[in-house]
Amino acid sequence: MINSQHLAPANSLINTNKGTHGLMLIMVALVASSFPVGSAITYALPPVVMMFLRFLMAALLFAPYVIAKNGWALPPLRALFGYALLSIPLVIFFWCMFEALRHTSAINTGALYTTLPAMTALASYLINHQAISKRRQLGLLIGTVGALWIVFRGQISALVNLQLNSGDLLFLVGCLSLSVYNPLMKKCYRGEHQELMTFWVILFGAVWLLVLAFPSFSQIDWSSVTFRVYAGISYLALFTTLITFFLLQIGTLKLGPTKVAAYSYLTPLFVILLTVLMGIEQLDWQTLPGAAFILIAMLLIQNEPR
15: which residues sit within 8 A by CB, 6+ positions away? Predict the structure, then answer.
């Protein structure tokens, strides 16, 4: 059992579930912003190198705060093992995502990403023995339909003609890996301060990504990398890596893995809103029914008692 006294850092930020849901909306908005920012700088560096710099920068930015609050002492060996274990699903997901995009389209990956909440519910059942009620099953089904509706702009023929290739199968492996993160995090949590878990998971993620990215370093002309690229990586490191991981862990401990994962249904909706506000795309009214489905699904899942 998780001792509520150890959640003081999180509870000092939010005292009610309403506050937690608000933080989850902020988290989704930040995650959605990573798509236009990432697409603007992805040409400059190999994806795995960019992800390594993103994780490393996030760890370096967070280190002074963690050290000032918790000192220089290393966590117990068992805790370090848990943090290293938690970082693996994240690294697998990001590697699978960028590798899959070499063989498939963004539309396909966007469609397949909607399977994440259902996968997380199943992983929570297998790891934490969290039952999936009929209400939650209905919410997951409606949310998946709504997210797919938004991805395909209501064109059923596009969904029917979706053919899975090697890239799609690889991305599904990545989604399956990511679905394990939330329930596994609850399993590994031992009452430590939230910032400690966030920092060490990100740092271990940087270590694994360094192993993957190292062969590419010699092939990069670092002098040609512009300030715009580093600024984009800095944004991804601070807002869409460090802050989102911190919010993710708070939400998982207070709401549960499935409720937090259900917020990923909002990701395509937030991406559309951001791209419209940035002038990249125009609002497509055909996506409104999908948005309505998602809102219904969120009400079903989020209002279910834990």
Answer: none
